[in-house]
Every structure is written in C-alpha cells, then in structure tokens.
Amino acid sequence: MLALGIFLCGCATKKPVPQNYTFFPPPPDEPRIQYLMSFGSESELGGGSKFNQFLAGEEKVVRPIYKPYGIAIRKGKIYVCDTELGGVTIADPARRKLALLKPTGQAAMKMPINVAVDNDGTCYVTDTGRGQVLIYNKEGNLADALGKSGEMKPCGIALAGERLYVTDLLNHYVRVYNKANRQVLFTVPRNPTNDAAKLAGPTNVAVDQQGRIYVSDSRGFEAKIYDAEGNYLRTIGEQGVTPGQFTMPKGIGADREGRVYVLDAAAPVVQLFDGEGKLLMLFGQPDKSGAGSLYLPAGMTIDYDNIGLFQKYVAPGFKIEYLILLTNQAGPQKVSVYGFLKKG
Fold this sequence. Notes:
The chain contains two helices and 25 strands. By secondary structure, the chain is mainly beta. A hairpin with a 4-residue loop joins β4 (77-82) and β5.
C-alpha cells in the first residue's frame, strides 16, 4: 500500500509535458488547420488503462480498427466502416470506448465502405460486397436494404434533409433517394449526354447547406460539383501529381463557406479549394511520417456539431470552427481529427 501511495503521489505531482502542435500550413505562415489527435484502438482513446485494469482485476480487451474507409460523426459518436473487420466501429470519445456494429446472418455486412447516420440513430452503410445499401435501426437491427442483385455497386453515401445520396460505380452516377419512402428521385448527372458532366468512377459524395452535390471521380481523376437538382456546375482538378491535380481522389467534403476538400489517396494529401476550384492550400504532410501524416487515406467528413469533444487539443489562442475527420487504411493513425481554426 505504501508503494501504491508513492506511485499515485508521483502521478499527481508530475509536471505537464509541453505540448507540440502540428499546423498547416507550417510556420511562418499563419495556421489555418491543426492536427488534433488520432486513434486506432480503444486504448488510444484513453480507455482501457492497464493500471486501472490491474486494480480492478479486469482482463484487457483490445478493440482495434483494422482497415477503415468511410467515416461519419453524429451526436458525439464517430462511425467508421472497417472493410477488413466487416463491420462499423463506433467510437465514443467522451466515454473513451469503442463499440462494434457487426450483425450476423442475413443482416451481416460483406464489404462495408461508407456510412451515414441520421439524427434518430439510423445507420446507412454502402456494402459493395452485397451490392446494397444496408439500413440499420438505432438498436443495430437490419431494417431495410436498397438494391437488388446486380443492380448497382454502391460506394459513397450522404444524408441531407429528406434525401439520401449514393454513388454507383456500376452505372457511373449518383442515385438520389427520397429518404422516407426510399424511392429514387433522380440520378446525377441529370444530363448524361453532357461529356463534362459525366462520371467515370464516382466513389465519394458530399452535400453542402445549399444542396450542392460534390462527387469525387476516382477514375476520372477529378471532382465534380452539381446543383441541388443534379445539374452540372463545374469540375475541379485533373490527372497529375502537382498541386491542384489528382491521382486517386476519394474522400470529399465542403464547408459552410463553399470551400471544397478533396482527399487524394495516392498522393497522399488533402487539397482545399474555393468554390470556383482555385487551390487554397493542402495538408497531410505528404512524403513524411509523424503527427498529422496520411497513410493510404480514404474517407472524410466535415462536422460543425461536435467540436467541443476536441477543443482541449487546440493550441492556445485558437478555437475550432469545424472538424475534419479522415481515415487512413494503413499506418498507426487509423482515424485522424483536424480542426479548421479561428482566433479566439
């Protein structure tokens, strides 16, 4: 007991370690984005302390994330599609716990790629192995499935208002569903004869507050923007390896100011453009390792509602305007969280 008391006192009086911050762009430029934290298992969320488990006589439970792709965040929980595990890992940063949505039998996932979560806890998962969008209720039970055998190859997914958006790699377009009755309203692009509007391999999709639709076209080496009714607006990028060009665009997102994020899985880097397609900056430390680096990145989401979970990681003098969450299919940082900064 004396040894335990000395140990605990030592922990209590230990001086805090100075914090190192990773900014993009790096100094001396003014920072706009900060790498906040990453995790790939429950222990990296701060849960599963070995010392606490020793005191309680608990057996250590390892809950790793193996090969993540799609990511979503809703009401304080982060949902990550794990293609190797065949399920959706649900991270609760506040409780420092990981849970797993991995049904069996007819409800089982084969190759979950992307995920979207509604306010009522309904979870929509694109499964390229089953060729369906699987819909699970808040209890984790399969409520419905969209798509018949051989009808489509779903990949990206997004929710906005009363609409559900699903990219279809088989048919080279985006399906827009009525969320309530799950019927297809229309497909994007609306005018498939317009060469500029066509999609070669639509992987990921995002929708902004105005209803504009953003699609990463991995086989076309570009990103495309459509209006709320699926009419073509513009193209961002082209094939290449220099800033403003893409080799394998995947994750995509847009903030409330109309800025567009495009994740390049092969570069690997995230490029930030204005609404007209002008390159503003990039981040992710390409060709480097360490905090904030990317390792075969795949999925992305932008979030304004859960910044309080990560404000403690922000450098003094700054606040988070919104979060940028990314997945890495390799390396130690399976889920990385960045913050778009504002002075505060």
